[in-house]
Write a structure and sequence with these properties.
Layout (H helix, E strand, L loop, with lengths): L1 H9 L1 H20 L1 H29 L1 H30 L13 E11 L5 E6 L12 E3 L4 E8 L4 E8 L4 E5 L5 E5 L7 E5 L12 E4 L11 E5 L11 E6 L8 E7 L2 H8 L4
Helix pairs in contact: 2-3
Family: Belongs to the MreC family.
GO cellular component, one term: plasma membrane
Protein name: Cell shape-determining protein MreC
């Protein structure tokens, strides 16, 4: 308290001068419309800038929550789209609309990658979804850009995914613009490039053509994006192989969707029936 009194005694003339200056400026602003408008504009500019900075910081801190909301919205849209696709496929198969049953073939479950390897010969990914979310072996894992891999080991809370960057990976794929199929593998060299092999000699394709899943398994639906053809070989051979540039950056993965084939067990029962 004594120091505060000493401060006022020492700087009393300066403080009195500052007080008079504030009063003078206030009188000028209040009695002159031009000065008043300039003052208001200046304060609005300053406070507006502060509010903008505060808003930007708040938005940044809430990004995780907003991303989670977007993932759930995308999940709901994917499941609705699957129902619509099934409906349209049923119509195209000459069934009468009156007898159609809107049965969903696939269901999507959202998750996050908590571990990802991409430099080894056999790469695996760990996701934060397991048996508690009805995750089992041999389920496709994708994101908004394309395929990522297939689940191969599951616990209650987590699952290991065999990445497409794995020497044992073998996925049915095809050209988007025709029905020529091949097998998607990885040669272990570049994590951005995989190979499409066993392509028929009569297949017509060019650089830039899109490769998608073929749908000839119980794991991935038909038409999920994979990548594009990088270079067309000059001569086609019996074991024709072409390089595919992935849509996904396999070194930078986050949110994923795990695909459940709702008809998987029935399909396997039929296929394994020897009678």
């Amino acid at each position: 308290m004594q120091q505060l009194i000493y401060f006022f005694q020492k700087y009393k003339y300066f403080l009195f001068f500052l007080f008079l200056e504030i009063i003078a400026v206030a009188l000028i602003i209040n009695n002159h419309s031009f000065h008043k408008s300039k003052f208001i504009s200046s304060t609005n500019f300053i406070t507006g800038g502060l509010y903008q900075k505060s808003s930007n910081i708040s938005e940044y801190l809430n990004l995780k929550e907003r991303n989670a909301v977007l993932v759930e919205e995308n999940l709901a849209l994917k499941n609705k789209l699957e129902k619509i696709t099934t409906y349209l496929d049923s119509i195209s198969s000459n069934q009468t609309i009156d007898t159609l049953k809107l049965n969903q073939n696939y269901n999507y479950i959202s998750g996050n990658i908590i571990k990802n390897s991409f430099h080894k010969a056999d790469n695996f990914i760990t996701i934060n979804r397991g048996q508690n979310y009805n995750i089992s072996k041999e389920m496709g894992v994708v994101n908004s850009k394309g395929i990522i891999g297939i689940t191969d080991n599951v616990s209650n809370k987590f699952a290991r995914v065999q990445s497409i960057l794995n020497s044992k990976s073998s996925i049915n794929a095809k050209f988007k613009n025709n029905n020529h199929y091949g097998t998607l593998i990885w040669d272990g060299k570049d994590y951005n490039i995989v190979q499409l092999t066993d392509i028929p000699r009569q297949a017509l394709f060019k650089e830039g053509d899109t490769i998608v899943t073929g749908g000839r398994s119980t794991i991935f639906p038909n038409g999920i994006p994979i990548g594009t053809v990088i270079k067309v070989p000059e001569e086609l051979s019996a074991v024709n192989s072409i390089n595919i540039k992935l849509f996904n950056d396999m070194s930078n993965l986050g949110h994923v969707y795990i695909i459940t084939n709702l008809n998987k067990e029935e399909i396997k029962t039929v296929e394994n029936n020897n009678e």
